[in-house]
Amino acid sequence: EVQLVESGGGLVQPGGSLRLSCAASGFTFGIYDMSWVRQAPGKGPEWVSTISSGGSITYYTDSVKGRFTISRNNAKNTLYLQMNSLKPEDTAVYYCNFRDYWGQGTQVTVSS
């Protein structure tokens, strides 16, 4: 059974940082591209970032370029999202995703 379990969310002040993690199990993690997707209150899902299976290629939506860094550890079956210089508009539930599989999400709230 595929499982994706996100963690690391929380409440942070504007300008702060958080590191999200996604622990994957039930599939061969190292052969799939992985993504982070977020959903803000009252809005639809927004793609944030994707990393290639080997970790050498990354993509970001424009609004997070230069602030967020996606990475992975295939030996630990874990996906990460380092988020710096956080803004209130980054407030959302963040989901780990590949193909049609999603985690339960972790809430990120950026507020003073």
Structural topology:
Elements: E1 3-7, E2 10-12, E3 18-25, E4 34-39, E5 45-51, E6 58-60, E7 68-73, E8 78-83, E9 92-98, E10 101-102, E11 106-110
Parallel strand pairs: 2-11
Antiparallel strand pairs: 1-3, 3-8, 4-5, 4-9, 5-6, 7-8, 9-10, 9-11
Write up this protein.
- The chain is built from no helices and eleven strands.
- The chain is globular, with a radius of gyration of 13 Å.
- The mean pLDDT is 97.
- The protein is mainly β and 112 residues long.
- The strands form two sheets. Strands 2, 4, 5, 6, 9, 10 and 11 form a seven-stranded mixed beta sheet that branches. Strands 1-3-8-7 form a four-stranded antiparallel beta sheet, with no helix packed on it.
- Helix content is 0%, strand content 52%.
- The protein has strands spanning 3-7, 10-12, 18-25, 34-39, 45-51, 58-60, 68-73, 78-83, 92-98, 101-102, 106-110.
Defining key terms:
mainly beta, globular, 52% strand, four-stranded antiparallel β-sheet, 112 residues, seven-stranded mixed β-sheet
